Amino acid sequence: MSEFVRLLFGRRARRRWIHLILGGALAMPYVFVGQLVVGPATDSRYVFHDLPLQLLSFAVGLPLAALTAALFPLTRALEAGAVRSLCGVDAGLLAHGPARTRAAKGRTAAWFTLHLGFGGIISGMSLAVPPFAGFLAALPLLVWLGGAELVELPESLDHAWVLALAPVAGLATLVALAGCAAVSGALLARWAPALLGPTPEDRLAAAEARAADLAVRNRLARELHDSVGHALSAVTLQASAARRVLDTDPEFVREALAAIEDTTRRTVGELDAVLGVLRDGDGPGTAPAPTLRADLGGLLRRTRACGLRVTAAVDADPEALPPVLSREAYRIVQEGLSNVLKHAGGRTNVALRIEIADGHLEITVENPLEHTPACRPGGGHGLRGIADRARLLGGTAQAGAVQGVWRLHVRLPMKGPA
């Protein structure tokens, strides 16, 4: 019994009833337009006082409602918002944007017609049934108080048992009204995902938007990892080395502090460029992304200041490299040197080769195997980021132990899907 009462008068049923009443309110302008058509067509001056003519006006107005929904794409977004709030339908099953395609507009028109149709009927019943039910419930009392003087009764109601059943009939009409509202609301809630849900085009657009967002986030993550991670590794080693010789080699300490200052200044500029993408309504920061052409020498100088003995052999002209390739290659070299800094502690030899072979830019970073840059516990993202950069450029990246050394080897096509 309690379950039956909950289905008819529970919170969800009441909210769906409100949704139907809103549909009836939206239907009223179309009913008035329908009356302007039905009145002259039937030669009737008082359409509003004639129930059959009112129903006919309602039927004439519904096609106009469907046409309105088809002509205004935002109808789908508005109706979907009302369904999410009042009908208890999962938001993931409904479309969020306006209807753009012909199929989406047709389904929105069908939904709008159903909403206004069910809503108009339930709204009319909600206005008419409660007063009638109240009259039936009060009928025995009215007859007892004044008989025919207060209420003009048909002959059939002179019997006491008929009067006794009148309150029951009034209650039954209220229950019937609640049942009609609950069934109508449940049907609309069931049909909403099919009529207001995303179309295949909507799902494809959403998937493309998610993929684009994920690509931007991955790019930002790589940029932050490579620039900030390299800077922190370099600054840590420089500060540690300066602390050890603070009392014995002031000149080295000054060079280390100068290198720290230069590293942090450049990293703050790069960080501003990356974070500018994340600010609403803001474009990329003013600091340009570093490239082999602009900062290879500076990168090597700052790395050597950390204690690494870097031997660089550059057989490619950085000036001739495409900007995107030069930028990504710089990040790959930076991350390769940063890996050695983190895992070798800044006290080892590093061989860097940058050359062009068979239409590819090849980058090789090698250091002794005893300073293997293996991933730290919990995993690292440096080698994964290098592999991602190489894959996006149509190239390859390999890292591992080869003939007594740890080698990072990356091949990037000079012309590819950059």
From TrEMBL:
PANTHER family in UniProt: NITRATE/NITRITE SENSOR PROTEIN NARX-RELATED, NITRATE_NITRITE SENSOR PROTEIN NARQ
Organism (species): Streptomyces ferrugineus
Signal peptide (residue range): none
Lineage: Bacteria, Bacillati, Actinomycetota, Actinomycetes, Kitasatosporales
GO cellular component term of the entry, any: membrane
Keyword ATP-binding carried by entry: yes
Transmembrane segments: 20-41, 53-74, 109-142, 162-189
Protein name: histidine kinase
EC nos: 2.7.13.3
Stored Gene3D superfamilies: 1.20.5.1930, Histidine kinase-like ATPase, C-terminal domain
Residues annotated as domain Signal transduction histidine kinase subgroup 3 dimerisation and phosphoacceptor: 217-281
Catalytic activities: ATP + protein L-histidine = ADP + protein N-phospho-L-histidine
InterPro entries recorded: HATPase_C_sf, Sensor_HK_TwoCompSys, Sig_transdc_His_kin_sub3_dim/P
Pfam families: HisKA_3 (PF07730)
Keywords, comma-separated and alphabetical: ATP-binding, Kinase, Membrane, Nucleotide-binding, Phosphoprotein, Transferase, Transmembrane, Transmembrane helix, Two-component regulatory system
CDD domains to which the protein is assigned, alphabetical: HATPase_UhpB-NarQ-NarX-like (cd16917)
Single annotated GO MF: phosphorelay sensor kinase activity
